[in-house]
Amino acid sequence: MSTDTDVLVLGGAGVDTIVYVPELPLPYADSYMIDSGIRTRAGQTGDFVALGLSALGLRTHHLDLLGDDPEGELVRALHREKGVALTAIPQPAGTKRAVNLVGPDGRRLSLYDTSRSHADDRLPEATVRALAESSRHVHVSITHPCAHALPVLHETGVPLSTDLHDWDGENPYHEPFALAADIVFLSAAALTDPERTMRRIVEHGRARLVVATAGAEGAYLLTDGDLTHVPAVPPPAPVVDSNGAGDAFAAAFLFGHLDGAPPRRCALYGAVAGAHACTVPSTETAAIGRDRLLERAAEMDH
User: Fold this and answer.
1) Cα separation of 298 and 301, whole Å?
2) Domain-by-domain residue ranges, the chain?
3) What is the pLDDT of the chain when averaged over all its residues?
4) Torsions phi, psi of 185, nearest 5?
5) How far is CA 302 from the centre of its chain?
6) Is 164:178 a contact under the CB 8 Å cutoff?
């Protein structure tokens, strides 16, 4: 079957306001002077994955709800600038937004504006079906509209991936995504026993690959019943921000997967891209390119 798109990214479009703070947690004070400035830019998890895939040469299409507001225009402008196809479904409540407090060590605290979405938000089934059927792969963000799209996606038979982010292994909201995807990414940050959670995903769901990222400790890869550790890759420059590192990892892993690379090679690509992302300030969107990714991965082989 011919396809127009390598990866369809569902959901996760929005705008972040970035505030660099002197420390996290931030002690109470009447006011703080932010010398680095407070900046608002387009880019949430779906945007970062879509831009990361496109930077690696994959034909990428992004589908989500966007408001007719200044934040929505920032998202549209970012996709135009980066050459990523975007289908925007009208969102009367407005475009999703968040405030990210970023500490000196690159850690972040995100404040999400939940007023910009409603439980009855939906992506049109016909649009989801048409775009999925013309794609090799679909990456699904863990938003309410995407949860409702899972049955339609299954009917298409197109392989799925998702990122559960900092799931604790128990929150029932994440389970439909965890059990529906063929490839599952998640952070180990909130897991007391990452291996147990990873194996449970495989036992009860469709996943053939599960990857738990652990920041500077690398990542854990579960495939064919075997759990292996993937070392972290040294960042090519000083670490300034961890925002988007997990999205970069997922995009590069999918790049390798769709190119036919074995899982451990895919995880190496993810580690390289994640390390690169940590050197990019939150105020920018600069994904690693294909040539640089392959060059850094080759360096890791020696």
Assistant:
1) 5
2) 5-300
3) 94
4) -105, 145
5) 29
6) yes
What is the C-alpha to C-alpha distance for residues 162 and 159, in angstroms, rounded to an integer?
Answer: 11
| Number of alpha carbons in the 13 Å side-chain half-sphere of residue 32 | 15
At position 125, the amino acid (one-letter code) is E
Q: Which CATH superfamily is domain 5-300 in?
A: Ribokinase (3.40.1190.20)
Residue 66 in tokens: 């966007």
The four Cα atoms 283, 289, 293, 294 give a dihedral, to 10 degrees, of 180
Q: Which CA distances in Å does 202 have to 54, 67, 130?
A: 29, 37, 29
- pLDDT tens column, 112-127: 999 988 888 999 999 9
CA–CA gap between residue 89 and residue 128 (Å, rounded): 11
Nearest to 162 by CA among 170, 51, 153, 233: 153
Which string of DSSP letters, residue by residue, matches 106-136?
S-EEEEE-GGG--TT----HHHHHHHHHTEE
Please check whether residue 220 is in contact with residue 195, taking contact to mean a CB–CB distance below 8 angstroms. Answer: yes
* Global pTM value: 0.94
